[in-house]
Write a structure and sequence with these properties.
By secondary structure, the protein is of the alpha/beta class. The protein has six helices and eleven strands. 21% of the residues lie in helices and 23% in strands. Bound molecules: FE2/S2 (inorganic) cluster.
């Protein structure tokens, strides 16, 4: 992302944090970047975690992209609740656990082929696609990477993923079939 931002001429800064320098991935590569834009923070050497509140409060950024442990991402989320929709993007290492006890079956219709299948309460739409012989791309199967995303033609998705932001979820036009479900009885997707 930093390389891409540099090529596009965007203004950027990177805060790279770890417990110690020996635990930071890509230390050498990051050290070779513009030192005025890269801030290293090592908890053990600096007696505590990165002061996120200070960093974010004083920032002139249009957007923040973050990945890391859940505690850090939760803290960033809490500190940026007033930021504009879509300006804070997270990549979580682990999906939040969702309660599946109220799951219900629904019909999944593939608009292009006209095929349809009943997605049972115990399986994901991606599982159902595979059961009907459709080879659909996937990677994490946890609603984290976005590889399986499809467009919605009709129906109301019940979003359970960590890929789409709140605006994208509210639009109802995108769907992550490895974890998400349908709020009604039928969902038509662009496959
Ligand atoms: S496979 Fe990663 S979000 Fe669906």
């Amino acid at each position: 992302m930093v390389q891409s931002a540099r090529k596009s001429g965007l203004d950027w800064t990177l805060a790279a944090c770890a417990r110690s320098s020996s635990r930071l991935a890509f230390l050498e590569e990051l050290s070779a970047l513009d030192p005025a834009r890269v801030q290293f923070h090592f908890d053990l050497a600096q007696s505590g975690p990165l002061p996120l509140a200070t960093l974010l409060a004083g920032s002139p950024w249009d957007a923040v992209y973050a990945c890391g442990p859940a505690g850090m991402l939760d803290a960033i989320e809490a500190l940026t609740t007033s930021w504009s929709e879509g300006s804070v993007r997270m990549e979580r290492f682990k999906a939040e656990q969702k309660d599946a006890s109220a799951n219900t079956a629904f019909e999944l219709v593939l608009a292009r082929s006209g095929q349809s299948i009943e997605v049972s309460a115990a399986e994901s739409p991606l599982d159902a696609l595979e059961r009907m012989g459709v080879e659909h791309p996937f990677s994490c199967r946890e609603g984290l990477c976005g590889t399986c995303e499809v467009s919605v033609i009709d129906g109301v998705p019940d979003h359970r993923d960590n890929v789409l932001d709140s605006r994208e979820k509210a639009s109802g036009l995108r769907f992550i079939p490895c974890v998400s479900r349908c709020s009604g009885r039928k969902l038509v997707i662009d496959l």
